[in-house]
Amino acid sequence: DFINAGSLLSEEEKGVRDRVREYVDREVIPGAADHWDRAEFPFEVLPGLGELGVLGGTFSKEYGCAGWNNVSYGLAIAELARGSGSLATFVHVQGGLAMTAIHELGSEEQKRRWLPAMARCEKIGCFGLTEPEAGSDPGSLGTTAVERDGGYVLEGEKKWIGNASFSDVAVIWGRTEEGKILGFLVETDNPGFRADVLPRKGSQRAAWQTHITMKDCHVSESARLPRAEGLGSTLSILTHSRYGVGWDGLGQAADCYETALAYAREREQFGQPIASFQLVQQKLVEMVNEISLSQLLSIHVGRLKDAGELDPATVSMFKMNNV
What b/e readout covers 186-204, taking b as 16+ CB neighbours within 10 angstroms? Predict the structure, then answer.
């Protein structure tokens, strides 16, 4: 924290940051490299993660969540990402996408059924939007949702969906015969639902992405997210998730700098540490400058979000800059 950006934080925000930092140092970092090498998800850290309050951290305590402000939530995400980008990816899917969709678009019954257990990591969720052909263009999704027998039949595929292979519930987006995009909560033991882990992934290897196939997947009317109507509902959830990913970039950048600095101090060449050479120093200084600017941007964007003044374009700029 070269520019003392911490002076812009409240004591409560610093407390959240410090608690998550201590957890990451103790529980996440020691095993992160091995999990990455083996492409294994760190299931053993989930109980402790659930106790921290990060999942759905900004949601109300009445749903078993922490009730933090958005700056506290962002600081927590940055600390998790500093320890493991793969674990941060899990949090974005569980909290930033699946829980947010339920919180913002679900019924009161759906929120009370799923959110407390998901906040504790006792239940896992995923967010099924991206498709093999539509990619990141949600307006072109091809999954169909046909009304039948008081409910819907879902048919289609989703690809690169995090957490789906071990989820209890999937938020699935499909298009009706009238062309309207709706959201559904599909329990993953549904006989028409299948999720296969995508192999040979080169990045965030300890986070598992999957290929979902739905064939004759029947869901009841009660599975529909009542406030999810149209493309705008989908995009609103993505905006919240992008906010978390912006802090994720800050956390990973900080770890890159700390790792590079430690190595430059230890690695000797021509009889002295390489940190003593101006070419290396320039690279480290540029890193500090960019991280410092990202810290200021992150806190400012968090304050805007807390004030209800954050627009999607600013969130996208924030994510692009930090990542």
Answer: bebebeebbbeeeeeeeeb
User: Residue 286 and residue 248: Cα distance in Å, rounded?
Assistant: 19
Residue 183 dihedral angles phi and psi, to the nearest 5°: -115, 145
* Tokens encoding 118: 């998901």
- Residue 166 CB-density burial (10 A; 0-12 exposed, 13-18 middle, 19+ buried): middle
CA 304, 308, 314: angle at the middle one, nearest 5?
50
- Taking the C-alpha atoms of residue 245 and residue 231, their distance in angstroms, rounded to an integer, is 21
Looking at the DSSP bridge assignments, the partners of residue 148 are: 151
Cβ-contact 288, 257 below 8 angstroms? yes
Angle (deg, nearest 10), helices 70-83 and 278-306 = 150
CA distance 236 to 208: 24
CB atoms within 10 A of CB 101: 27
pLDDT digits (tens, 9 = 90+) for 216-274: 999 999 999 999 988 888 888 999 999 999 999 999 999 999 999 999 999 999 999 99
How confident is the model over 35-92, as pLDDT tens digits? 999 999 999 999 999 999 999 999 999 999 999 999 999 999 999 999 999 999 999 9
